From TrEMBL:
<protein>
    <submittedName>
        <fullName>Serine carboxypeptidase-like 27</fullName>
    </submittedName>
</protein>
<dbReference type="InterPro" id="IPR033124">
    <property type="entry name" value="Ser_caboxypep_his_AS"/>
</dbReference>
<dbReference type="InterPro" id="IPR029058">
    <property type="entry name" value="AB_hydrolase_fold"/>
</dbReference>
<keyword id="KW-0645">Protease</keyword>
<dbReference type="GO" id="GO:0006508">
    <property type="term" value="P:proteolysis"/>
</dbReference>
<dbReference type="GO" id="GO:0004185">
    <property type="term" value="F:serine-type carboxypeptidase activity"/>
</dbReference>
<keyword id="KW-0378">Hydrolase</keyword>
<keyword id="KW-0121">Carboxypeptidase</keyword>
<comment type="similarity">
    <text>Belongs to the peptidase S10 family.</text>
</comment>
<keyword id="KW-1015">Disulfide bond</keyword>
<dbReference type="Pfam" id="PF00450">
    <property type="entry name" value="Peptidase_S10"/>
</dbReference>
<dbReference type="InterPro" id="IPR001563">
    <property type="entry name" value="Peptidase_S10"/>
</dbReference>
<keyword id="KW-0325">Glycoprotein</keyword>
Amino acid sequence: MSRAYDPCTERYSDVYFNLPEVQKAFHANVTKIAYPWKTCSDIVGDYWDDSPLSMLPIYQELIAAGLRIWVFSGDTDSVVPLTATRYSIDALKLPTITNWYPWYDNKKVGGWSQLYKGLTLVTITGAGHEVPLHRPRQAFILFRSFLENKPMPS
């Protein structure tokens, strides 16, 4: 079985999350809306008005509370580009603890990381914004490093 990206993944999600038994299990669509659930639907975004559009104020609150914040980004993402993530983090004006360094998976560069006071940014080489879908091994390394409170392997 191939572990390559399946371009039909979005379709599978649409079918699965519209199954009545799945919606019941998730306590979803309890109002019986007339349109089906859709991956990356604009409907939610068009009507989203109960929280800030930017995560930056939330990051600032969490950092001030002493929580560890890790932000990760695939480096081949045209929807949520790494450059936008970096500009956003730069806007927080956090002191840099460790400058950009490559992290490794099996002696190959898995991405790059930068540590700030209160926040860690990790990139994943060759991934889009669905990192576990495109790079499951590297996503596991990222998740394990976060849980173990260790920097990405260098």
